[in-house]
Amino acid sequence: MDHSDLADDFSARDWQRTEPDPDDPLRFAMIGLGWWTVEEMLPAVAAEPGIETTVLVSSTAEKADRVARETHTDAVGIDYDAFHDGAAAEAYDAVYVCTPNALHLPYVETAAELDKAVLCEKPLESTAERAAQLVEAAADIPIMTAYRMHTEPSIRMAKRLYEEGVIGDPVSVQGHMTQDVLYIAGADSWRLNPDLAGPGASVTDLGIYPINTARFVLGREPVAAHAAMTSSHEAFEDVPDEAANFLLEYEGGVTGSYTASQHAQLSGSLRIIGTEGELRLEPAFFNDDRARLHLRTGEATITDQTIAFPTVDQMQVEAAYFADCLRDGREFEADAHHGLVDMRAIEAVYQAAERGERVTI
Questions:
Q1: Which class is domain 149-312+333-360?
Q2: What is the pTM of this model?
Q3: Sheet holding 222-230, edge to edge
Q4: What is the CATH number of domain 13-148?
């Protein structure tokens, strides 16, 4: 059966409910000016009508001002202490938190005190305990965990095909995400520092992608974890997971078998296998124009199809979705509690590897 009709009327912004107003934009304060904010988020916001960056927050106001000049961003630069003191609060409506994981909580607490909406990078914090504190602190403000796969058209298309019953009942998910953090950021990367990153390097930063994407597509929560990890390179001596292989059990008996590594070739894939077919996305999780979504169905007669979907800037669409929800006054698909569930799953993965046994979530 040809399922192209399901794709024909698919919109990359099937979530959009309001029209952005360039004359009344959502104004962002960007907290943490590392390479991801500077190279990904700032240009994404600049390219999207109806949102803009008006405040940059870094270790010093001088650095923030320099980044503003270098990125041609018309924004006020302040330091972290000034942010906590409420400086320039009238100049922004929402904050994007992109500091190391263990520093998310204090900035969300301040944003809540200032009654500002929050887009917080994943993982939500460095531990489930701190993530729970963050959820409590943000109870009265709109807050979204920054899962860019939730607005990635290939993933939304996969979710639509699954919900239409195209692959039948889900049986298992297979996925991996790998990169070389030593090449990207060097051996002194905060991702290799447990005090800043959390219990490890690879599952927290990369494994979270297949963990959460399976949750999103299937609408099923993780219930238990099994895992094995190894670290041999000297740069990974403080973390257990230079490479990790782990299995999550989801509700309804679905299993997810995943690999994550911060010391490997840049690569990603996702495969969802059902009783009547399978969906495969490769490359997955990265901004990559080569990504293709493949659908395989049938028994006596096998049908292979490549499902078309629009290519987008993932960060731009994520920011646009955040703004659209705020304008429309509706809840985010991934709020802070959604991020807390993943923190509990991640901790279970590390505990399973340490104990060598199944750990319930």
A1: alpha beta
A2: 0.95
A3: 303-307, 292-297, 277-282, 263-274, 170-180, 254-261, 243-250, 222-230, 359-360
A4: 3.40.50.720
